[in-house]
Amino acid sequence: MLIRKHTKVDGFVLGDKIEPGENEVNAHGEEVKIYPMLYDTILVRAEKRLLNLHSRVKDAPFLLEQQEELKKFMAPLPVQQMDLAEVSQ
């Protein structure tokens, strides 16, 4: 991908919390915008988009023969997150 001087770039900084005063979009000129976003928000959006796609194609002929595999794919997965090391200040 080639980024030029006037290429528009949207970046996202993900975290489990957003500090007060840090929830606004940070713009660097007209081309670069940085959006703070919670992990939960991005996961909800991704799940919603995936389920919308699933509802559109669930009866497609090429998927009917693969229903069992599709059910396994759509089943919720347990999320395991390791504790992050605390940084002493």
Explain what this protein looks like in three dimensions:
It contains three helices and three strands, in the order βββααα. With 89 residues, it is an alpha+beta fold. The protein has one domain (9-72). It has a three-stranded mixed sheet. The radius of gyration is 19 Å and the shape is extended.
Could you give a short description of this structure?
By secondary structure, the protein is an alpha+beta fold. 35% of the residues lie in helices and 19% in strands. It has three helices and three strands.
Rg estimate, integer Å: 19 Å
The number of E-state strands comes to 3
What is the number of helices? 3
Instruction: Characterize the main sheet.
Output: 3 strands, mixed
The count of domains is: 1
Percent of residues in helices comes to 25-40%
Shape: extended
SSE sequence, one letter per element: EEEHHH
* Distance between the ends: 40 Å
Q: DSSP strand (E) fraction?
A: 15-25%
- Average pLDDT over all residues: 82
Structural class: alpha+beta
Task: Output the strand order for the largest sheet.
Answer: 1-3-2
Which consecutive residue ranges, at least 5 long each, have pLDDT under 50?
Answer: none
